[in-house]
Amino acid sequence: MTLFLAKLILVAGAVSWFVIRLPHQRRSRKTAVAKSERTTREKLLLTGSATGLGLIPLIYIVTGFPRFANYPFQPALAWLGLLVFLSSLWLFFRVHRELGRNWSDSLEVRQSHTLVTDGLYHYVRHPMYSAFFLWALAQALLLPNWFAGFAGFVGFGTLFFFRVGQEERLMLDTFGEQYRAYMRRTARIIPKIY
Ligand code: SAH
Q: Does residue 191 sit within a domain?
């Protein structure tokens, strides 16, 4: 494992994520929305997340900026990063299929929205956010740079902590007691723990 390969893995992972999401993104444009909470705050959070997981690591990979934050590359960490990114992609793939037409890149309720509680949703309420945290972890393991490596955690973590409560309120408004019961038996992103 070399630093060049580690950078390549991160880029390939991001491209794979994009490819996994593409058909769902297309279909979601054609799926009628009943209620939307795509507010300015949501758009800012999405931009922050894309900056941390996308733009900042890309600038580091292309230019090496910011060099002062570099630390020595450790191949073992990068191998671990590869495993973590692969498991994150596997989660993305499954979760997209399980959510189907209910998926949205923001907070929206579809006209024929159904509550998914099976598959990965049996274990946690937000498996897609678990997948994004794994991506952020892979980024930190692959890039030997305190700033670019941890930018994903900061960007996506901010989105997560500001969004998750609002998303659960939206699901409670829509599904009432069914979602309340679902909340009682599931954790948010780490089975049984959180
Ligand atoms: N937070 C979930 C879903 C992310 S996609 C996850 O991490 O896996 C975001 C959209 O999914 C939201 O607009 C919401 O309407 C919808 N959603 C969230 N949980 C859901 C569930 N259990 N069943 C169906 N739709 C859900």
A: no
